[in-house]
């Protein structure tokens, strides 16, 4: 997906698209338009949502915002200034913040920029969040006042601990992963991608190359490290447990102000079922529906695109309220 618009936020050039269904033409269509925001997780990009976005635009009346998180996909351009300083770990320095805490602030800024923040006459959108985006969206909602019509949390991890053995290793010492030869680093990226998909045939249809593309190849920085390789390592190194621990300690999840639907792939090797069940308990009744989808891994939207589309359409029909700038 080509993200043609740019929102500048604290040194990052955030690439996004705001698209309305071709079927939305009349005033009555505009008044019944539902606004939907997609937020991807790590190490992904907005491309994971391309099939469902195409389905929504073809079948209904929707205004859709999709973007690449700062430091991911097409949003890896960062220009440091005196106002945005270098973020550092104990062993390596990275320009630009990609933490969940920062991503939540960036999301709030983007929603305000495109007038989908629920403030005044602006509509409060439905939001679909995958992977760490669940924690990003919850921080935006609970700590920064972002209003959502309804949430779908998709194979998301918003409880602790975070990450498997690989992610824990990178966070503990990122420097060796910056030194990996490009061919070895590419093999690591592809191994991570394969572990997230249940059906290997899906990846052989071109998805593996598509998901790996933002992280491999490209120019090198002044230290001789591939810029995309450094971006990949950075987003793992800057994953801070404290960004989630703050919400857990404050028991903030029970303060969610909209209805929530949970979707989880039953063969998800990244997020075990008990973490999903703990999140549901912590939301204290706000979760109105769960869909545990068989024969699907962490990338449930690619493993089971048809079933996932049904869950999304059904959720928007029953839980999402029509919004438009003309009526709010």
Report on the architecture of this protein.
This is Alpha/beta-hydrolase. InterPro entries: AB_hydrolase_1 (IPR000073), AB_hydrolase_fold (IPR029058), Epox_hydrolase-like (IPR000639). Keywords: Hydrolase. It holds the Pfam family Abhydrolase_6. The structure is a single chain. The model is unreliable at about 90 and about 320-328 (pLDDT under 50). Helix 2 (about 50-60) packs across helix 13 and helix 3 crosses helix 4. This protein has a single domain (about 5-170, about 240-320), classed as Alpha/Beta hydrolase fold, catalytic domain (Rossmann fold). Helix content is about 40%, strand content about 15%. It is α/β, with parallel strands linked by helices. It has 13 helices and ten strands. The radius of gyration is 19 Å and the shape is globular.
Chain-wise SSE layout:
Blueprint: E1 5-9, E2 12-20, H1 27-31, E3 34-39, H2 50-59, E4 62-67, E5 87-88, E6 93-94, H3 100-113, E7 126-130, H4 133-144, E8 150-154, H5 165-172, H6 175-178, H7 182-195, H8 200-212, H9 227-237, H10 241-249, E9 259-265, H11 273-282, E10 287-293, H12 300-303, H13 305-318
Parallel strand pairs: 3-4, 3-7, 7-8, 8-9, 9-10
Antiparallel strand pairs: 1-2, 2-4, 5-6
Helix pairs in contact: 2-13, 3-4, 7-8
Domain AB hydrolase-1: 36-309
Keywords: Hydrolase
GO molecular function: hydrolase activity
Number of domains: 1
Helix-strand topology string: EEHEHEEEHEHEHHHHHHEHEHH
Could you say what the CATH topology is called? Rossmann fold
Proportion in helices = 25-40%
Rounded radius of gyration (Å): 19 Å
The largest sheet is: 8 strands, mixed
How far apart the termini lie comes to: 30 Å
Shape: globular
Structural class: alpha/beta
In the CATH hierarchy, the architecture is: 3-Layer(aba) Sandwich
Q: How big a fraction of the residues is strand? A: 15-25%
Unreliable segments (pLDDT under 50, ≥5 consecutive)?
88-92, 322-328
CATH classification class = Alpha Beta
Which strand order does the major sheet show? 1-2-4-3-7-8-9-10
The name of the CATH superfamily reads Alpha/Beta hydrolase fold, catalytic domain
What do the pLDDT scores average to? Answer: 91
DSSP summary: helix tally: 13
Per DSSP E runs of 2 or more residues, the count of β-strands stands at 10
